[in-house]
Amino acid sequence: MTVLQMKCFVNLATTKKLTDTANSFNLNTSTLSKSIDHMEDELSAKLFHKKQNKLELTNEGRIVYPSLQYIVKEYDELLLYMDRFTSTRRTAVNAAMIFHQPRMIELLLGFSKQNDDIDMTITEASATDIQAMLDTSSVDVAVIYEELLEKKYPYTFPIRRDKLVAVVGRDHPLAKRARISVSELKEETFFLFKGDGLMYRFLVHTCISGGFVPREAHSNLRINTIMECVKANEGVSLIIENTLNCLDRKNVVVLPLVENPEVTLSMFFPVVYLTETHEKLMASLNGECQ
Question: Considering just the CA atoms, what is the radius of gyration of the chain in Å?
Fold first, then answer.
């Protein structure tokens, strides 16, 4: 039994017409009919019967259909997978990146420069949008904090652990402390980054875990503006420590939290098989970020 025969069978089970399936595979109807006959001989079973000018699966046909459909699907996916290794065409890689990750963007651009056959496109987006991209496979690789996602994905590779810290003004009463508990901030006014819904939820839940609901300044501010508000002693913030590397930290104090809340920056690949490009990218980022 050939793959073409199996594909014809699966297609015919859907179209129910020899002419439609024959046209799909550029065959004449007599050739297609003989192909189905050969399958029936090999399986020692009648696969189709006529019903009101259409071909319907017999009981035996319905039994073998799921297995043949699976084989065809796996075969097509295998060809697609192998094409990544054998094709001489340039490879396009669409990468999605959570906000405030300049080092990761630098690494991805460096990877693209080192691999002339790869065209890299990078999009900065919220965790909510990136999750949608993963679910629809509209992105080849996503770099995002694993704890923010609402579901698991088969190919997930940790890059590094990042800590959540408190940021206060230089003259804040807690500024001289080596570390604080989240609960010590319960009377403060918070400026929290709301540009990413899932990250914002994580920040609020951190406060709730400390025994309080944060009292917020009702402003949807950019991260740089939040830092300016903290510098002016108008309130405090909770920020991923690594994010501070791309911000002006003058006149603010970064305080580790006793609870030590952490998130895992990871790579996600929404694919059935990892390609050579995926593995090269994974090795490149892991090698520099450990």
Answer: 28
- Mapping DSSP to helix (H, G, I), strand (E, B) and coil, where does residue 2 land? coil
CATH number of 3-86: 1.10.10.10
**Of the CATH numbers 3.30.70.920, 3.40.80.10, 3.40.190.10, 3.30.2350.10, which one belongs to the domain with range 91-160+264-289?**
3.40.190.10
C-alpha torsion sign, points 153, 159, 164, 169: negative
Give residue for tokens 């006149």: 251
- pLDDT in single tens digits along all 290 residues of the chain: 889 999 999 999 999 999 999 988 888 888 899 989 999 999 999 999 988 889 999 999 999 999 999 999 998 888 877 766 665 555 778 888 888 888 888 888 888 888 877 888 888 888 889 988 888 888 888 999 999 988 777 788 888 899 999 999 999 999 999 999 999 999 999 999 998 889 999 999 999 999 999 999 877 889 999 999 999 999 999 999 988 988 888 999 999 999 999 999 998 888 767 777 888 888 877 655 54
Give domain limits for the chain.
Answer: 3-86, 91-160+264-289, 161-263
Tokens of 261: 């809340």
